[in-house]
Specification:
272 residues, alpha/beta, eight-stranded mixed beta sheet, six-stranded mixed beta sheet, 8 helices, 28% helix, globular
Amino acid sequence: MSAKLLVLDIDGTLRPRGEERIPAPNAAALRAVQKAGVKLAIATGRCRAEVPARMLRGVRPDYWICASGAQVLDASGSELYTARMTSEEMYALVDFCEDYEYPLGFGFSDGGYVYLDYPAFCEQGLTGASGISLRDGEDQDRHLLDMPFAAFGILPEEGIDRFKEKYGYLGLQFLYYHGQGCDILRPGQDKAVGLRRLLDTLGLAPEDCAAVGDGANDAGMLALAGQSWCMKGGAPAALAAAKAEGPDAAPDGAAQICRTLWPEVFAGEDAL
C-alpha cells in the first residue's frame, strides 16, 4: 500500500461544490480502500456535530480532524485532542460584530450556533439537513456549557482590518471560503496540527499519510503529508502546499485519486 492513512477535506474535495452529498463513486472508493486496511480520516473546518450523516452517503471514517484541527476524534466520538477559544477571543468577536452588525457564529461540541443574525446564514442555505447544521443561538448562552473550537462569520475585508486594528494582539486568523464568509481560527490553529496529533496517536510518520484538499485551511496538512493533492482549481495556498495537483472534484475526483494510490484495490471492477 502507498499510504496507511488517507485524509480528505469535504467541501470542494470529497463533495463537489453544489452537490448535497458526496458522489456515490467517491463513497464506494473510500469504502474499498478502508476494506483493504487503509485508515480513513475526514478533515474539515466544521466541528464534528456540524456534518450531517446523510452527506457522507454511508461512509464511516475511522477518525475525524474537525474545526480546522482543534477537534480530533476517533470513530466512536472519543476525543483524542481538543483546543478551544478563550473567553477573551470569543467576547472580542461578539462585541466587534455586534458593533458593526456582522453575522457571527461559533462551532461547539454539539454543533454550530449562530450568535448574530441567524437569518443571514439561512439565506446561504447553511441550515438544511444536507448542509452545515446550524442552530439559532442568538440568546448567546451556549458558551456557558463549554467554549467553542472556532468561529465563523460574514465580514468584508475592511471589517477584518478594523478588527485587527483593535484586537490584533489576539492573533486570530480569518480564512475566506466563499464570498464574504470566513472561518475565524485561533493563533496556530490548523488542520496540520490536528493531523500531527493523529499521526502521533497512531504511531505513524507523515510519509505514511496521503492528504487531499482544496482550500486555504488545507494548506498545512497538504504540506505535512508525505503524499498530497490539491483539487484542480483549489486555493493558491493549497496548490502551493500540495505535492501534486489533482483532478476536478466533480464528478468523482476523490475516487480517481484513490485509484492512483491503490490500483491493486481497483484491479477488478467488482471491488466497487
